[in-house]
Amino acid sequence: MNDIFKNGGNQTPSDKQQQSKDSVYFRDGVRRIDFILSYIDDKDGEKKQDRRKEFEANLQKVGLELETEDKSESEDGRTYFLKIHVPWEVLATYADVLKIKVPFKANDIPDKKDVPLSWLCTPYRLPEHVMQPEPDYFTATFDKSKTDFFLIEDKETFFPPSTRNRIVYYILSRCPYSKEDKDKKGIKRLLNNGTYAAAFPLHDCRYWTRSRDANCESERYSLYKYWARFSSFYKEQPLNLIRKYYGEKIGIYFAWLGFYTEMLSYAAVVGLLCFIYGVATFDENVWSKEICNDTIGGQIVMCPLCDKKCGYWKLSTTCSSSWVTCFCVFINVMTLFLEFWKRRQARLEYEWDLVDFEEEQQQLQLRPEYETKCTHRRLNRVTQEMEPYLPLTSKCARSVLSGATVLFWISLIIACIIGVIAYRLAVFAAFASIMKDSPTNKLDVVGTLITPQFATSVTASCINFVIIMILNFLYERVAIKITDMEVPKTHVEYENKLTVKMFLFQFVNYYSSCFYVAFFKGKFVGYPGDYAYMFGKWRNEECEPGGCLIELTTQLVIVMVGKQVWGNIQEALVPWLCNWWVSRSARNHPESLYSRWEQDHDLQTFSQLGLFYEYLEMVIQFGFITLFVASFPLAPLLALMNNILEVRVDAWKFTTQFRRPVAAKAHSIGAWDEILNMIAVFSVVTNAFIVSFTSDMIPRLVYKYAYHLGSESTMEGYISNSLSIFNISEIPVENRPEEGENPDWFYSSNITTCRYRDYRYPPGHEKQYTHTMQFWHILAAKLAFIIIMEHVVFVVKFFVAWLIPDVPSDVKARTKREHYLIQELLIDLC
């Protein structure tokens, strides 16, 4: 484009010198910059130049005011910047179109009394000017023809910058750029084809200092100083200021993240108490003492855990303890979180004017891509206007292809998990052979941990984590492409479709290895002489005599902690390095040559799906700490520490590393709400099964109260009772250890039998090697425990949900009062 300056005249060097580099106004110092478009005028870009000319002419027809900064004034000498200002008439018109709510009367409902002991929260409070307590108004949908109805003091500041940039982006998304084809429209397509390099609203100042312009709010500086720094980790979040600066959609996310982190603190206390109780009562665990005792566990010879490469071993090498199960209490804590969040969300919906927002979103704000790709038109019965639509046949075909793609990738995950299982089975024998001379019969920390089982579990978990990260990287791109192919109608529908695909994939990807350890490992092993094999080649894995709970904990910690650490590195380090590299040349320029729009242009773009990935990360974490909490009660504490950091890392990214996102509205966390409820319900089932079939709790209780022959119900003799006997001479040749694989102590005494984890009759019995009645009693007890515990937890869960109303009573009263006043005042105006 030629060096033409619209609605502002040519800019002289003196103008550039006089204007503050942090100015967010046109050169006249009056009109505020609501949006920036940047582009590089290529020598061979005549077609792009024509598009820009037509596009900008159409913007001016709509009523927007434009001003261009020449490339000679930019720090790189190549980039043009088009500044956009939206005047009052255009604001009023589109505020009416978008049904934006604005204040019309001060609230006349008296507030409730102060909360008792509120002074205890004083250390966590932020200054009043940061919390941005807005006057309490009743609001109504803006009507351009009834401006006297609303409380308008200053037209320039009546709509906040976040609303102004949302209106501008709405216009940009629907403005045509071709005279021949009116369907060619929207800033997204212009960005994709390189006509424009970037489109973004401006930050109001640099984040580390206030703006030099007295008329500028410097809200970015306040957000950085009081919210984005880690030193404020214990402070409340300035949600009203976040909403005002970034819009409701981002405000809802941080409100949810903060509330979730607060509830995690209670769950972390419960988990920590369970862990401390387990450690404190370690010495009272008779069964653990028997395993670790040289005269009991040290004398019990166990059968080989694999063929040929595994020798006989002593029970004392698995000296370990089990966790105390307290998932029932934890699940109820998380139920309270979900119910209290509904109340908090309902209050935010009212305070942020988001009530009935979904209807507006569905009816009015079609995706530009949907309007472009759908050539068919039909009458909308609600708006009585012709609108584009996707034929049913096309929609079904796209859905089938999308579903087939998702199934293919899920099958790929399952195939990878089977590969990891095959690795576990293959390398276990190698580790057993290497470690056969390891002094694991010593009762020390190293001896209790460095076992073939532990080495196999850790290496397999690390390999599984790497596979998870690779598959995530690939599937993210596939999920976006197939969602684009489905052509969703609205942005809400688009995000919901993508949410389902990504969550379904990541659910299988992250949790499948934990499900294998929890519910499959050690369940289909067989017994000496009749072992079960995978693919007829590798013998299935066995659990330790105390169960697979410790191994499940290991798997959970590696995947969960690894994901959180990697995620935080990605979120914090990558944007910072990119920004450092992009702005390297600008750092050598005088401050007067590095304007506000150039500073923001060098920042990273916050994509439309940015919040989607933030939600997904937290929901996957929620799954880890609920689905498997029975195996690792410290998981909520790890999640809490991560989330305290996550809030500030996300705040730091938004404030310092990203361009200011286009403000968007959202009345809730969307499809994530249903997903969280689904996980909470499913977690009751998984934890009940973990307690029953993965831990050793039920067999211990059955022994204590039904099979102990002493005068008191104690756990003495439980370990010996839980292990069956097998005659070594009856082990098939192909299962016996090779020469040199057995430890030296095996040859120094006459050992004729070995033990294995099961409840089967001993050799010589008329029903030898078949399941005993104790096995069936334990199985019945496990099933009974699952049924009883599920019903108890579900009853408590649904009772709590029924007891706590979703909408607070004062919010209901204010909503009714507001609707009444709107009707009354509208009648008076008529």
TrEMBL record:
Extent of Polar residues compositional bias: 8-22
Alphabetized UniProt keyword annotations: Cell membrane, Glycoprotein, Membrane, Transmembrane, Transmembrane helix
Region called Disordered, residue ranges: 1-23
Transmembrane segments: 253-280, 322-341, 406-434, 454-475, 619-641, 783-804
GO cellular component: plasma membrane
Pfam families, alphabetized: Anoct_dimer, Anoctamin
Occurrences of domain Anoctamin transmembrane (ranges): 242-818
Protein topology in the membrane: Multi-pass membrane protein
Primary residence: membrane
InterPro entries: Anoct_dimer (IPR032394), Anoctamin (IPR007632), Anoctamin_TM (IPR049452)
Domain Anoctamin dimerisation span(s) in chain numbering: 25-239
Molecular-function GO terms, alphabetical: chloride channel activity; protein dimerization activity
Localization annotation: Cell membrane; Membrane
Family statement drawn from the similarity comment of this UniProt entry: Belongs to the anoctamin family.
Alphabetical list of PANTHER family matching this protein: ANOCTAMIN (PTHR12308), ANOCTAMIN-5 (PTHR12308:SF23)
Name of this chain's protein: Anoctamin
Gene symbol of the encoding locus: LOC107728425
